[in-house]
Design goal:
Jelly Rolls, single chain, four-stranded antiparallel sheet, alpha+beta, binds 2-oxoglutaric acid, binds fe (ii) ion
Length: 174
């Protein structure tokens, strides 16, 4: 759907062939005293699909910085755009900052399917998205090399307490 909306269907096979999938089950314990908030972040992968039990908790940050509570119906998935996809789209779609805020008396479980680019595949903005009005914003890069940088001591130290910095965009900005 995203590729179609940009007229980039021809890249579909290439992207599917260069994708790895990770399925993760996450447990968020009910808060012991007052509300508990998990770190806000943007996912650095391509796409994240989330499914949760009946306990809400996911919040998405709007452009003006407001936190919006997600209340998905029980038969729906939440789809988040990751920074890799945002970079591949030359920033045409943003990757939302999100966090989990736990309230109440019940544990929350969520299931996440994370799609990420395979090591060795070079993420490069398609030529179709670059022109005089839309200069290229990101350099071609290999996601695995980025992850090495991401987990390096330098970048860990650069993460300000309570604040999120986009390490992928810092890594490959032109
Ligand atoms: O559990 C959720 O709803 C969000 C999980 C999440 O943001 C993540 O694992 O990156
Ligand atoms: Fe996330």
């Amino acid at each position: 759907m995203i590729l179609e909306s940009f007229g980039l269907e021809k890249y579909m096979d290439e992207l599917i062939d260069s994708t790895n999938y990770q399925l993760r089950v996450m447990k968020y314990e009910k808060p012991k005293t007052k509300d508990s908030t998990h770190d806000a972040h943007c996912d650095s992968n391509m796409l994240t699909l989330l499914y949760q039990n009946e306990v809400n908790g996911l919040q998405i940050q709007s452009k003006d910085g407001e936190w919006i509570n997600m209340k998905p119906s029980p038969n729906s998935f939440i789809v988040l755009i990751g920074e890799s996809l945002s970079v591949w789209l030359n920033g045409r779609l943003p990757s939302p900052s999100h966090r989990v805020m736990m309230k109440g008396n019940e544990d929350r479980y969520s299931l996440g399917l994370f799609t990420r680019p395979r090591g060795g595949y070079v993420i490069k903005v398609p030529n179709e998205l670059v022109d005089d009005n839309n200069p290229i914003l990101f350099k071609p890069h290999d996601h695995e090399e980025f992850l090495k940088f991401y987990y390096s001591e330098i970048t860990q130290a650069a993460v300000k307490p309570g604040g999120y910095i986009s390490r992928l965009k810092a890594y490959c900005s032109v």
